[in-house]
Amino acid sequence: MLEWFEISTGLTLVATATRAFLHVPRSFGADPFRTPMRGTGDPATTHWLLEGSIAFAGRTFHAERRAKSNERVRVSPAHWAYRLAGYYHTTHATRRLLPKLSQRFAASGRHGLALWAEQKLSEEVGHDLLALRDLSELGYPAQGLVGALVPPRAAAWVALFEQLAQAEDPVGCVGYAHALERLALLSGAAEVSAIEQALPRGVNATRCLRVHSALGSDPDHVRTNVTTTFALSAGERTAIASACHQTARIYFDPALDDDFQARSLEALVLEFRASRARAPSFSRQLEPIR
Description:
Blueprint: E1 3-8, E2 11-15, E3 20-23, H1 43-60, H2 62-67, H3 77-107, H4 111-124, H5 127-137, H6 142-148, H7 152-166, H8 172-184, H9 189-198, H10 207-211, H11 218-230, H12 234-252, H13 265-274
Antiparallel strand pairs: 1-2, 2-3
């Protein structure tokens, strides 16, 4: 069994039960991949269809990212606070848009997708508050900081999510969620430890990262996304794979890397911390979240 979708004009991603590869359509003669994907899905081929969608997004920017590989980003509490603002915006968009997706899927009789959206919402509840709690732990007025700062990569993801959610068929949102959760698995214990070592002693400000990493529940979410996707029609699987690819492109695109130090963002973030004493503590407004 094979699954495929056209990544761009003249380039098709093909998935087998064991791998994914790029196919350049023939100029002459019959080519089975010139037509839209057809047939039923399969757990193995659908898995590789989504894996390939992400992997080949990374390959698109390989040269640019390799050129920047020697540039080391200094992790500091202020830089981590800035990244937490990005986590807040993406997780808040999830909480805001998933109920609408569930309603749209249910209204069109797509009960499996409605259940997926409802389950996803249940799994993600409170995750935007985790980012705010981590910011408060770092000494920032959390709501003020996230209201003023939207990192460009997070902004691009939220814009894409809103576009997919408002489409005539919002099934691409499954691909968006899958890409973010699959890419979250690239963060593990080593990254969490490195960030914690850069923070002041005794500060617990990696709750949000732990949840959205290989240490959290995203491995299970990734499997659920594949199970949901392979049971859908060929057209729906194509839309999901395409959205997955678009989401992964945002992750890998070096143009969305924010030059934190050159743009004086660190000074701006630290200004918010200096105003902390004049703002109410967000942590006192929340029930404990672990």
